[in-house]
Specification:
This protein is mainly alpha-helical. The chain is built from eleven helices and no strands. The two termini are 24 Å apart.
Length: 273
């Protein structure tokens, strides 16, 4: 029993050392350097705040920061959800017909190449300032990775499997639901992982342009106000909150991806080992 416990402890330590020790050391070194540089160079807190200044600002203005985070979460989740549903739906539609794909997909590429800052004012005119416009902007940024990755997956079906379905007289939609969509799942999950982080970027960009105050502004609005008031420590706190939000969102989508793929796809099986 003791040898088993020691072996288990050794495995846990090995895994910790392999995956977590390096990032933790790098993070501690980064914080130490960040704390030291402003002191050594004599920089004022409004030029480069120390980590302790940022933490103090987050605690002091928590009553503003936490509601802003919650608002951005809601906007990002809605934008991501619409991106996922519309992106996957449009991909399936395009993959079902080469004529549709050749006709419509180039316009999706054109939409992606237009800077969102150029489109955002038009979105505000159409949908008004506030949640609607912010969700639409978040959707526009997160939409293309979903459609491009899903479409690639739907068009990358194993030729032998496709011929086997043809041999058994499967219809086009039977092939789609029972072969092409399951085969495209890894690509689809990759698109969702990219889209989930971009949806947060889109929500924050939308808040810069279409955000509203009065306690209803998200992180983008808070960043704008903090920059105007030269509250650099709070500005850093908002930026770090947005980064943490992006990491958390990515991890949640990665967990969902592993849940969908871990029983059969190599990428998830290797990640679990």
């Amino acid at each position: 029993m003791d040898s088993k416990a020691k072996k288990q402890e050794s495995k846990i330590w090995q895994k910790f050392r392999q995956f977590y020790l390096g990032p933790i050391i790098a993070f501690v070194v980064f914080l130490a350097l960040w704390q030291s540089v402003p002191v050594l160079l004599g920089l004022e807190h409004y030029i480069l705040p120390k980590p302790t200044d940022v933490v103090a600002a987050a605690i002091e203005d928590w009553s503003l920061l936490w509601p802003a985070v919650q608002i951005t979460v809601v906007e990002s989740v809605l934008g991501f959800f619409v991106s996922a549903v519309v992106g996957i739906g449009v991909s399936i539609l395009l993959a079902s017909s080469k004529v549709l794909e050749r006709s419509i997909y180039p316009y999706a590429i054109v939409l992606q190449t237009i800077p969102v800052v150029a489109v955002a004012p038009i979105v505000v005119i159409w949908f008004g300032a506030g949640y609607n416009s912010i969700v639409v902007i978040s959707f526009l940024i997160g939409f293309f990775p979903v459609i491009s990755n899903t479409l690639m997956g739907l068009n990358s079906v194993d030729k032998n499997k496709d011929e086997l379905f043809t041999l058994y007289n499967a219809t086009k939609w039977q092939k789609m639901w029972k072969l092409r969509i399951p085969s495209a799942l890894p690509y689809m999950m990759t698109g969702l992982k990219i889209s989930c982080t971009l949806s947060i970027v889109g929500a924050i960009v939308g808040e810069y342009i279409a955000g509203i105050g009065g306690g209803k502004g998200g992180l983008g609005y808070s960043i704008t106000v903090a920059a105007m008031q030269v509250k650099t420590s709070y500005l850093f706190a908002c930026g770090i909150a947005a980064a943490i939000l992006g990491i958390a969102f990515y991890l949640l989508v990665s967990m969902f991806s592993n849940y969908m793929l871990n029983s059969w796809h190599d990428s998830a099986i290797k990640a679990d080992k």
